[in-house]
Amino acid sequence: MMSKVIMGIQLPNRNRSAPEFQKILSAYGCSIITRIGLHQASAEFCSEQGLILLEFVDGGDKDAEKLEKALNEIDGIVVKKMIF
């Protein structure tokens, strides 16, 4: 049975880390089937902190590991994984 990987990534400063984050994420785009971005926002406020949830293709364990390693090189980013 192939495993399913769900990854959560916390960006403490979205504006500063977004360009590098997006470049790394794009390199693994073919292994990601779902991407959800969450942050607090209203007409008067948009949070600098964001949370990204990723679902990888079945058997995407190796790419998830490589992505996690690359993201951990960005200062302040927190990565957590669930493997089913």
Strand order of the largest sheet: 2-3-1-4
- By secondary-structure content and strand pairing, the structural class works out as alpha+beta
Low-confidence stretches at least 5 residues in length (pLDDT < 50)?
Answer: none
Helix content: 25-40%
Number of helices: 2
CATH class membership: Alpha Beta
CATH superfamily: ACT-like. Chain A, domain 2
At the third CATH level, what is the topology name? Alpha-Beta Plaits
Output the helix-strand order: EHEEHE
CATH architecture: 2-Layer Sandwich
The radius of gyration over CA amounts to 13 Å
Shape: globular
Task: Report what the structure shows.
The protein has 84 residues and is of the alpha+beta class. It has one domain: 2-Layer Sandwich (Alpha-Beta Plaits). It is built from two helices and four strands. It has a four-stranded antiparallel β-sheet. The mean pLDDT is 90.
How would you concisely characterize the structure shown here?
By secondary structure, this protein is α+β, with helices and mostly antiparallel strands.
Q: Could you list some keywords that capture this structure?
A:
84 residues, alpha+beta, four-stranded antiparallel sheet, 4 strands, globular
Strand and helix map with partners:
Layout: E1 5-11, H1 14-27, E2 32-38, E3 50-56, H2 61-71, E4 78-83
Antiparallel strand pairs: 1-3, 1-4, 2-3
